[in-house]
Write a structure and sequence with these properties.
Elements: E1 5-8, E2 11-13, H1 25-28, E3 32-40, E4 43-44, H2 47-61, H3 68-81, E5 87-93, E6 109-115, E7 123-132, H4 147-158, E8 163-168, E9 173-176, E10 180-185, E11 188-191, H5 202-214, E12 218-220, H6 230-235, E13 241-245, E14 249-256, E15 259-260, H7 265-280
Parallel strand pairs: 7-8, 7-14, 11-12
Antiparallel strand pairs: 1-2, 1-6, 3-4, 3-5, 5-6, 8-9, 10-11, 10-13, 13-14, 14-15
Amino acid sequence: MDDVVVWAGGQLHAPGDLLVSAIDHGITVGDGVFETCGVDQGQAFALTRHLDRLVRSARGLGLADPDTDLVREGVRAVLAARPAAGRVRITVTGGLGPLGSDRLPGQQTVLVMAGSGAPVMSVRAIRVPWVRNERSAVAGLKTTSYAENVVAVAAAHAAGADEAYLANTRGELCEGTGSNIFVERGGELLTPPLTSGCLAGITRALVLQWADEEGLPVRESRADELPFSVLDEAIAGRAPLLLASSVRTVAPVVSLDGHAMAVGLLGRAVVEMYQRRAAGDLDP
């Protein structure tokens, strides 16, 4: 953590500085939202899209719209202090509040951090038995209530993997703990629809947009088109997988539940496309 720099209250701080109250609602009940951007050429990649989603998530929680100009100030400050950083993390919480779930109006805590991170060349994944609730009040929001993901990632690491994939309550393929998933099947690359409960990933959206512009067969799946059991097809070698994430960017899944997997031809084309398009526009 020594490489992390923190911005709060208009100033830079060391990672060990005490900046958040013990009764901050983000601490007591996880009442907050966040964004993580990759960093390219010293700039937070796709920052405008990330800030737009930060506002959408805040509105979904009933928080006031974050001051995006203030957040941009913090991003500039941390990247000036750590120009070689690989990621920027933006956190906005409900601020000071009671010890229960009630929220005090007009409160907000804003933190911006920069630290290490980099794209990856490949990913090893496992399936986990827990599910996303697509009917949850916070489905599709990027909130700081990340305990489910912490547990699932720990299970992945214990199994020698990097990521864990979850179904939703309907038995459909949903997402990873911090990534979206694409499945190469029938000559197309499919990703679960937002109705599955998955996060509207920034990288996911760019893959869909850029692939459409370049005529690649990449799309959202239809309802029930990607059951969780499609991962059995992946293990059998009939459905290569691709991961999409802001920091890891786009990478093939080369192992699932300990079974080696080949990289799909369409997946290779999408990885190349994403790298090329992202290099040409840092705030698409």
